[in-house]
């Protein structure tokens, strides 16, 4: 099994390292920024490639992990590659590869950041392929990384990605807003870290609607008014406070 | 040390059990709903009390954990009690007790739900008291429960509570919206649980603004448009999607 990594961002880096850790050989790394390809290649004992024309044509899998809107253009440069070509995007349809012979999607439903190790063993790896044989090969590789391998259509994958934006990206932004409120009052983010951990922990064994707490779900008008008063000079935070409180009230 | 618990909701229950676990004696439990007082009293080997007039007058601490707007009224019935009277609210000023001789606040900055055990040892316990002697007694009790005992003024506590609404209550509501999106498309909430856990985990050692990911922070217009299209029949989710995406973009 020989894999070529196309891209050297957070997702490419984490997948490449995880593959290397289970002894899958990564032969080459290409990136728009050669220095990034060099950095990643160096970490996983692969060769950094400057020009797409230099790519091995006989790798088993070409894993494209670049910005969504760059995938279609990249595909044009891979016509000589004989292996399976996959991307790792949550929202790009598998049709982007329609002119190829063996292709698929290898979407890890997880958030990746630089310098933050991630345990791959329970990451949902959402796979899609153009035929059964290709899917079997992708399943084989994915199951070396994770116990949570799923077959997911392009349509369902888009939904997963959208739900992930709410559950992860928006959630992290709310953490950032909490930090903004604390900082403005000389309080450290440290104080709410246990709360953040427990909030995520609670829904590991319950549905979020069952464990909603706070002034909005109690319709505690007095507290809500106090909070709105505290936010009166931060109109953006106030708008978000009102919008989300109203939305919570409707679930009562 | 003898404690009386006034209230039998989530916060009262969790604190009472935690006190019992470190061998602090709970003598009585009172609640607006006698059956709730009975249930809690039974769990912690205390006596349920029907009428406030039956309360021990010689307990060391009276811990009031009821709805915010009920605290002031309750205080009127505690004039014969000789111990320290505290409430557990994030947003009620310590002044609510101004006519008493020994009083304070015992605010656990955590989210509590029925049937979900919580590890008290790292919960920030935010204390406030009318004098040094009272504070020392509260600190003594709090430090038996947690390694994270803080002295916090009423003003700062209100800010903490507001930040907690963003970091916990709103975050949980975003999880619920993610679940709504998944359910509408016959996908299980299970699939995004690892993502939720990792999102909270990432900010335990980083600031949220440093680890923001997703289409809005990348200004990935194409993906944002796809998501808005997917939400076109769910106007409330669409509004929240737009509001939070715009807010994230401004942090670039």
Automatic annotation (TrEMBL), chains A, B:
Gene3D superfamilies: NAD(P)-binding Rossmann-like Domain, ProC-like, C-terminal domain. Residues 123-248 form the DUF2520 domain. It holds the Pfam family Rossmann-like. Coiled coil: none annotated. InterPro entries: 6-PGluconate_DH-like_C_sf, DUF2520, NAD(P)-bd_dom_sf, OxRdtase/DH_put_Rossmann_dom, TM1727-like_C_sf. Residues 2-105 form the Putative oxidoreductase/dehydrogenase Rossmann-like domain. It comes from the Bacteria. This is DUF2520 domain-containing protein. It comes from Pedobacter polaris. The lineage of its organism: Bacteria, Pseudomonadati, Bacteroidota, Sphingobacteriia, Sphingobacteriales.
């Amino acid at each position: 099994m020989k894999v070529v990594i196309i891209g050297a961002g957070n997702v490419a880096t984490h997948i490449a390292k995880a593959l290397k850790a289970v002894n899958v050989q990564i032969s080459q790394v290409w990136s728009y920024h050669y220095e990034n390809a060099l950095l990643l290649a160096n970490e996983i004992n692969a060769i950094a490639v400057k020009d797409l024309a230099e790519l091995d044509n006989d790798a088993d899998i070409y894993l494209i992990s670049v910005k969504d809107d760059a995938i279609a253009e990249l595909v044009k440069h891979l016509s000589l590659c004989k292996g399976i070509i996959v991307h790792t995007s949550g929202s790009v349809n598998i049709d982007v590869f329609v002119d190829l012979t063996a292709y698929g999607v290898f979407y890890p439903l997880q958030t990746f950041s630089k310098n933050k190790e991630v345990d791959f063993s329970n990451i949902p790896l959402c796979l899609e392929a153009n035929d059964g044989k290709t899917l079997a090969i992708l399943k084989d590789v994915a199951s070396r990384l994770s116990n949570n391998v799923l077959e997911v259509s392009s349509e369902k994958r888009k939904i997963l990605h959208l739900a992930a934006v709410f559950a992860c990206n928006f959630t992290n932004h709310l953490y950032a807003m909490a930090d903004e409120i604390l900082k403005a009052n000389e309080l450290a983010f440290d104080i709410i870290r246990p709360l953040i951990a427990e909030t995520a922990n609670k829904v590991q064994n319950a549905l979020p609607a069952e464990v909603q707490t706070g002034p909005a779900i109690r319709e505690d008008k007095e507290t809500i008014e106090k909070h709105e008063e505290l936010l009166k000079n931060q109109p953006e935070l106030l708008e978000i406070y009102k919008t989300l409180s109203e939305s919570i009230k409707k679930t009562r």
